[in-house]
Design brief:
alpha+beta; Histidine-containing Protein, Chain: A; 3 strands; 44% helix; 20% strand
C-alpha cells in the first residue's frame, strides 16, 4: 500500500513540473481534465514565465512595470512603460520566445511630472 502512495505521489510530482520547450506532458487526471487543455495551460504558463523573465533581465525595459499574460500562445503586455521605445523593445523580446504566436500590447506611457 505504501509503495502505491509513493508511486502516485511521484507521478503527480512529475506531472506538475515544468518541462523543456516543445515537450508536451499528458498526465492522467482523475478529475476528468482534458489532456490538450492541460498541455496548453502548461505551455501558456511557460511562455508567460519566459517572456516575463526576458523583460525583467533586459537593461532597457527591466525597470518598467510590465505585466505578461498568455492565452493559446498569444502574449499580452500591459502596464506602464517609461518611453515609447520600451513598448517596441518589450514586444521584440516577447516575439523571440518559443511558442509565442502573436504579441499584443496594452502598454501605457508613464506620466511625466
Amino acid at each position: 500500500m505504501r509503495t502505491r502512495r509513493v508511486s502516485a505521489a511521484l507521478v503527480l510530482l512529475l506531472c506538475t513540473l515544468a518541462v523543456a520547450p516543445g515537450v508536451s506532458v499528458g498526465c492522467a487526471s482523475g478529475g476528468g481534465g482534458h489532456p490538450a487543455k492541460i498541455n496548453q495551460t502548461l505551455d501558456d504558463a511557460t511562455i508567460q514565465t519566459r517572456v516575463k523573465t526576458a523583460i525583467l533581465n533586459d537593461p532597457a525595459v527591466g525597470g518598467d512595470q510590465i505585466d505578461v499574460t498568455s492565452q493559446d500562445g498569444v502574449v499580452t503586455l500591459s502596464g506602464v512603460i517609461k518611453s515609447a521605445d520600451h513598448e517596441a523593445r518589450a514586444a521584440e523580446l516577447a516575439r523571440k520566445i518559443g511558442g509565442v504566436k502573436d504579441v499584443k500590447t496594452a502598454l501605457k506611457l508613464e506620466a511625466q511630472p
